[in-house]
Amino acid sequence: MIRVVVVDDQELMRVGFRMVLGAQADIDVVGEAGDGAQAVRMAAELRPDVVLMDVRMPVLDGVEATKQIVAAGTARVLVMTTFDLDEYVYAALQGGASGFLLKDTQPDYLVSALRSVADGDAVMSPSVTRRLLDRFVGSGGSEMRDPAELDVLTDREREVLVLIAKGMSNVEIAETLFLSEATVKTHVGRILSKLDLRDRVQAVVLAYETGLTRPGIG
After folding, report:
1. Model-wide pTM > 0.85
2. Of 24, 40, 43, 112, which sits 20 to 30 A from 216 (CA to CA)?
């Protein structure tokens, strides 16, 4: 059973998320919060698997709440956003969020994404990822890092990292490189370990910040 806390300052949104998620046999919405401070307290108390986090909220916004929850190790965080909040989402990713979705995401995709995050993966929408990184990594929204950080990777691992940065799943990477999914998982694990990264989200950010790939390429 995946235990979830839903965080949004709009009650109607919380009700909608609860209805969608509560209809799943393997998901239990164990709590709701209307602001970031309440979310941090609830995550510490309930220890859910995933916090579904809004960004703009009173008392404490979703970015700071995400940082505190991730730092405390109480749950993984999946951020919900809209296009006009790009800068907040990038900050949330840097703060440890395991991914982000748009609020108009289809219910079945939301459920699938939440399961992926609960399973330890990260949710990256290719189109939104490119938009974010084009605006913030590609145009000075984040400091560039030394490409030498990637020297620990093999050529194959670099190839895999580029495809991760494009938002590809393990299955898609396997098809592109003519590898088995198990082999791709092994490569991804080694990439995260060698670069001391928590998950695919951090891998995507690092790929752009080191110039391994650039927005709009591929």
Report:
1. no
2. 112
- pLDDT given for residue 217 in this prediction: 47
- Whole-angstrom Cα distance, residue 114 to residue 147? 32
Lowest mean pLDDT among 61-75, 110-124, 151-165: 110-124
Give the CATH number for residue 42.
3.40.50.2300
| CA pair distance 19, 168, nearest whole angstrom | 29
Residue 196's region, left for phi above 0, alpha for psi from -120 to 50, else beta, is left
Name the pLDDT band for 105 (thresholds 50, 70, 90): confident
- Across 85-106, average pLDDT: 77
Domain that holds residue 95: 2-124
Q: How far apart are CA 100 and CA 77, in angstroms?
A: 9
* Sheet with 27-33, side-by-side order of all strands: 27-33, 2-7, 50-53, 76-81, 100-102
* Strand ranges in the chain using DSSP code E only, listed in sequence order: 2-7, 27-33, 50-53, 76-81, 100-102
Secondary structure of 99-122 in HEC code, one letter for each residue: EEEECCCCHHHHHHHHHHHHCCCC
Helix/strand/coil for 162? helix
